[in-house]
Amino acid sequence: METKLDKIINSYKTNNPFKVPNNYFSHFNEEIMSRLPEKEKKVAPQKTKRVSMWDKAKPLVYMAAMFAGLYFSINLLTKNSDFNLLTNRQAEQQQTLNSPNIDNHWASLHITEEEFFQFVEAQLAEYSYHEFLNQLHLN
After folding, report:
1. What is the DSSP string of 104-130?
2. By the 8 A CB rule, do 76 and 83 touch?
3. d(Cα 99, Cα 92) in Å, to the nearest integer?
4. pTM of the model as a whole
5. Per-residue model confidence as pLDDT tens digits over 100-129
């Protein structure tokens, strides 16, 4: 038994419910363009701006100043003697004036590598001995 609703649904299944007017897409562009308002074209008088010589040369002057600064800073860093930096002897004299006599003693002390290793070995042996005695006392 078919109801009214079934008849309506069946009629839409077979037929396309959407319809487009004849020649709609062929004249679509023309219709849209005709509905748009006309745009007024304003022609502004062009003012010529004079560019001075300084405005033209300014970037070149800035670039030259940058390269000159770069050149002098590299020279400063690479040529220490030209800029009156402290020599090694002056630095040692200044260090001796600023540091106490104990530091001078250790700075003037010269030991060989073998003497240094013997000293370290003796210190390590003494430390190990004290650790061993501390463990005996704790037990």
Report:
1. HHHHH----HHHHHHHHHHHHHHHHHH
2. yes
3. 10
4. 0.28
5. 555 556 667 778 888 888 888 888 888 887
